[in-house]
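Exercise 7b. C-alpha cells:
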C-alpha cells in the first residue's frame, strides 16, 4: 500500500467542508460526516480500552473490531462502496454467543461500572449505539448497505457482554441496579 497521507494540515476544511474518498466535498455538519465521526470516536474509545489489562482473547477480538471499524469508516467515506463484509457481522454473532454462554443469566439490570475495563467497555457500547443511530439517520436520507448498521447493532450488544466478562476477569461481578421500587418490595 502506498503512502496515502502526505500532508495532514491541508487547510481545505477551513470553510467548513471536508473531502470524501470519492473527492466529493461535503459539509462537516452532514449526516455522513456525523456517522464517520461517531465511528471514529468509537474506534478511539476501543483504543483506550485496549490499554487496560485484558484477557488475550478479548484483546485479539477488540483489535479485529478496530480494523473492521476502519473498513466501516472507509465505506462511509466512499458512498456506494461496500468494504465491511457480512462475514464481519457473523463473526460478532459468534463472539456474542460464545462470551454470553460463559456468563450467568441476568436477573436484574446492571449499571455501567465495576472494573475500569468494564466501565470503558460500557462507554464503547454507548458510543456504538450513537454511531448506529447516526447510520440510521444517514440511511433515511440516502441509500446505504445494511451491513454497517447491523455490525454496529451487534457490536453494542457484544460490548455489553464483554463488560460483564471484564467485570469477572479477576473475580469481580456486575454492578446491579437497585431501584426504589425494588427496595419497597415492588409497591408503587
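Sequence design result:
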Amino acid at each position: 500500500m502506498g503512502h496515502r497521507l502526505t500532508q495532514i494540515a491541508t487547510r481545505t476544511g477551513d470553510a467548513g467542508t471536508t473531502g470524501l474518498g470519492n473527492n466529493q466535498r461535503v459539509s462537516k455538519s452532514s449526516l455522513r460526516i456525523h456517522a464517520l465521526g461517531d465511528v471514529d470516536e468509537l474506534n478511539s474509545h476501543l483504543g483506550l480500552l485496549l490499554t487496560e489489562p485484558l484477557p488475550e482473547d478479548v484483546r485479539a477480538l477488540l483489535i479485529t473490531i478496530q480494523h473492521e471499524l476502519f473498513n466501516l469508516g472507509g465505506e462511509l467515506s466512499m458512498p456506494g462502496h461496500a468494504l465491511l463484509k457480512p462475514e464481519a457481522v457473523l463473526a460478532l454473532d459468534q463472539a456474542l454467543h460464545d462470551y454470553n454462554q460463559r456468563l450467568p443469566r441476568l436477573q436484574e439490570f446492571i449499571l455501567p461500572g465495576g472494573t475500569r475495563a468494564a466501565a470503558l467497555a460500557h462507554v464503547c457500547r454507548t458510543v456504538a449505539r450513537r454511531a448506529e443511530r447516526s447510520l440510521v439517520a444517514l440511511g433515511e436520507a440516502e441509500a446505504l448497505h445494511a451491513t454497517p448498521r447491523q455490525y454496529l447493532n451487534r457490536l453494542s450488544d457484544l460490548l455489553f457482554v464483554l463488560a460483564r466478562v471484564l467485570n469477572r476477569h479477576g473475580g469481580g461481578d456486575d454492578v446491579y441496579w437497585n431501584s426504589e421500587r425494588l427496595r419497597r418490595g415492588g409497591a408503587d
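Instructor comment: The radius of gyration is 19 Å. The chain has one domain: 26-101+109-185.
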